[in-house]
Each structure stands twice: as structure tokens, then as C-alpha cells.
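Work Package 3 (structural annotation) set out to generate three-dimensional models for the target panel prioritized at the project kickoff. During this period the team completed the workflow that converts sequence records into C-alpha cells, so that structures can be stored uniformly alongside our sequence database. As a representative example, we reproduce one entry of 185 residues exactly as it appears in the project archive.
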Amino acid sequence: MNEEDLVFRARNGNMQAFAELIDVYTPTVKRFAFQLGTNYDDIDDITQEVFVRVFRFLDQFSQAKFTTWLYKITLNVTRDFARNKQRQIKKVLKFGKERTFNGKTAEESILRFEEDRTLHECIQKLDEKYRIPIVLFYFHDKSYGDIAEITGISLANVKTRLLRGKEHLKKLLALAEKREGENHG
């Protein structure tokens, strides 16, 4: 069954088709959320919220490509989640309580999703305006047009950000390799 048929059936109230949409696209949503810098422990919550929104707004879906719409929702949910988390942390700190994160186990778990830890760390260091187009283009095979639609920026900006993002990423990778060489040398 192709994407269009699934979406059509799900829009018409077929819960089995909606469940299939979830099964098919959950790995994509999780990977994209992770690559946007989401903490591993929050990925399931974000994924759930993405599909809640898909369910709520599926009847309004009118774009040509479901996946483009799904990426846009994932990007928005991820941003909303990060803002809310920052607000929660500020509240906790305001009341003098400590907040700790178990980074080591999260880091170890994250490596299941990504083969190259150094590349992932360097991508996370990029400014969001470069990181999002890089992730969408190289890891999700999105076209310039899709990226423009998902991010709401012009095609020219997509091309510029990809070019500049690659330049920044090359510099970050070169620095990381140099540090790695110094640590083992």
C-alpha cells in the first residue's frame, strides 16, 4: 500500500490505516527529532505528540506530500518541546532545586541511532538554521523544495544555508579529528 492510499484511508476514519501510518513513519520522526538535538529520553514523548497532531489535523492535510507535512509537524513539536523544557528548567532553578540529567546513559543509548558519534556531535554544534537543512538534505533525502516548505524559508536561503552549513561542518569535523589525534598521539 502506498503513502497516498494510507493517508486517504486514514483521513476517512480508517484506524487501521492510521496505525499503519504510525508504524511506517515512527522511525523517521524519531530519527529527525534526535538529529534536531532532542535528548534521547524525550524522543518517545515528541513522537507521540507528532502523531497526536497528525491525527487531529489529518482532515486538514492538503499538501501533495504527506512526508513533507510530517517533517514540518515534527520540527514544530520539537521546537515547542524544547521551549517548554527550557521554561520548566528555569522554574526549577528559580526555586533553588537542582536538576540533573544522566548524560552518559542517554549518550550510550543515542549511539544506537547514529553510527558516527563525532559527526552527530559536530552537527549538534551547528546553528539551527544550518543544522535543520543539513539533516533534512543528507539524512532524510529531502529536496531543496521540500526543505523550503518544511522550514518556511526561500529556496535561495535553503541553498545558501546548506552551503554555509557544510563549510561550518567541515571545520568542526577537522577540529574534532585534530583533537582526537592529539588525544591518541
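The radius of gyration is 18 Å.
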